[in-house]
Please model this.
Amino acid sequence: MKALPLVLLSLFGAACVANPAKREAPAMPFVGTKWMVVTERKVEIEQPYLEFGDGAVSGSTGCNRIMGRYVQDSIGAGAIIFSSIASTKRQCADSLMAIEDKMLGVLRSSTNVRVTGNRLRIDGSAGALDFVAESTGPLTPPPPTRP
Model:
């Protein structure tokens, strides 16, 4: 009778080794990472981005520079509030101004931030912004295949 639990335990252990759980890549650090805004179309001048420091945020909308302050919860629940969000006042193409309007609207109404792997999402009552961490270096091409 004691052999049955041992058999079940060994089968369970073998199943765990045969099917290891997939793990997510560790999250990029929120502070110190250059977060590039995910846009529908490629931006011609400068890709919009944000960078977070010790309570400060700065970046570009693709047209104007933006800066401001933020307060993030200390218990890891993902709450965030931006304040004093300001931007330079250059006029650009309508497509860039639309991106800027969305970025500023979401930042000024934001309530939540989440980092998953190399992705960042900021949600607010004005919508959501998705970001990807800037590549840290050039991509290495795969080795050539031989016929």
In short: Residues 14-19, 137-143 have pLDDT under 50 and may be disordered. The CA atoms of residues 18 and 97 lie 53 Å apart.
